[in-house]
């Protein structure tokens, strides 16, 4: 039997959230520059930094810069190897699902082999909510926290079941969920599943697959009753700023969601972009936005906001 890991570092915000949810906060030595939840992580050393300065850029400029960096074979992140050596972790939590979300295996694996002792790397790359549960179990297995994981997962499943019971018999709402606005990206991986659990159906979503660029005409053809704007990597305030540009798109005022005032910006980082324990809160948030008469939102006030441009189109 493998010895449970005692010295953890996390290069992924979702993995950091998992570790703390499993009661492993005292074992986490350092995190990525993007890790900000729970509050206890804010004082931990940072192991990564971005290699591109994207401050002040719009979504189109960010997309262009990131695409060019990846096309050149360069990484979006730099890892502090000296700090990693000093910390001497026995487990590194990261992912190889998305090159935009964390350092890739091409840079991390060679670095890890230069450490003494060589740490185990646990790759967390989910495509569904079940995969997120399995990732929690994998972290728990590596750290002797299996019982805590099962309790946590049972609680998450119970919340999903409660939402399903509240939505029983409710009409399914037609939704378009956008993970980027310029260029426009539809929902991928676990997000379309979240929409469905919340009583919606996203005809442009790609369950279990990568989010991809979609034509604006496809959004118009989908004619969503509810439009969710959730730019990956952004909090609510940034999402509201970026989403406002959608009002200049041709045909915006014809969308049913716009006419009905059902266009919402949401905190992507907290509830949708990170495949960790809070995705269940994301399902509850979506259920409230789609069916407010059946599901109340009891979370933070800064989780979502209606877009003023939609209300006055």
Please tell me about this protein's structure.
With 313 residues, the chain is an alpha/beta fold. The protein has two domains: 8-125, Rossmann fold; 171-311, 3-Layer(aba) Sandwich (Rossmann fold). Helix content is 38%, strand content 15%. Helix 5 (129-143) packs antiparallel against helix 6 and helix 6 packs parallel to helix 12.
**Cα end-to-end separation:** 62 Å
Overall, the morphology is globular
Poorly predicted parts: none
Q: Supply the number of structural domains.
A: 2
Number of strands: 15
Could you tell me the strand content as a percent range? Answer: 15-25%
CATH class (first level) name of the largest domain: Alpha Beta
Radius of gyration: 20 Å
Per CATH, what is the topology of the largest domain?
Answer: Rossmann fold
What order do the SSEs take from the amino end to the carboxyl end, as H and E?
EHEEHEHEHEHHEEEEHEEHEHHEHHEH
| Helix count from the secondary structure assignment | 13
Tell me the CATH superfamily of the largest domain.
Answer: Nitrogenase molybdenum iron protein domain
Main sheet: strand order: 11-7-13-14-15
Helix content: 25-40%
């Amino acid at each position: 039997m493998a010895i449970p890991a005692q010295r953890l570092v996390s290069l992924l915000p979702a993995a950091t959230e998992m570790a703390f949810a499993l009661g492993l906060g005292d074992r986490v030595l350092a995190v990525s520059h993007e890790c900000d939840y729970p509050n206890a992580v804010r004082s931990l050393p940072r192991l990564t930094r971005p290699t591109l300065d994207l401050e002040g850029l719009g979504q189109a400029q960010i997309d262009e810069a990131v695409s060019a960096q990846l096309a050149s074979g360069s990484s979006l992140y730099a890892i502090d190897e000296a700090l990693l050596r000093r910390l001497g972790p026995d487990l590194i939590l990261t992912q190889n699902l998305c090159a935009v979300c964390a350092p890739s295996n091409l840079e991390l694996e060679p670095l890890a082999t230069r450490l003494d002792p060589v740490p185990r790397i646990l790759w967390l790359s989910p495509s569904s909510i079940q995969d997120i549960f399995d990732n929690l179990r994998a972290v728990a297995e590596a750290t002797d926290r299996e019982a805590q994981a099962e309790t946590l997962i049972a609680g998450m499943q119970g919340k999903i079941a409660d939402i399903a019971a509240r939505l029983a018999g409710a009409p399914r709402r037609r939704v378009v969920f956008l993970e980027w606005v310029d260029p426009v990206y539809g929902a991928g991986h676990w997000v379309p599943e979240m929409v469905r659990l919340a009583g919606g159906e996203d005809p442009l979503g790609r369950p279990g697959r990568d989010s991809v660029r979609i034509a604006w005409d496809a959004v118009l053809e989908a004619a969503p009753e509810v439009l969710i704007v959730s730019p990956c990597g952004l909090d609510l305030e940034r999402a509201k700023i970026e989403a406002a540009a959608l009002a200049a798109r041709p045909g915006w005022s014809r969308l049913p969601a716009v006419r009905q005032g059902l266009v919402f910006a949401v905190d992507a980082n907290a509830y949708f972009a990170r495949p960790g324990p809070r995705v269940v809160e994301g399902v509850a948030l979506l259920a409230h936005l789609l069916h407010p008469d059946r599901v109340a939102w009891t979370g933070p006030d800064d989780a979502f906001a209606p877009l003023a441009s939609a209300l006055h189109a």
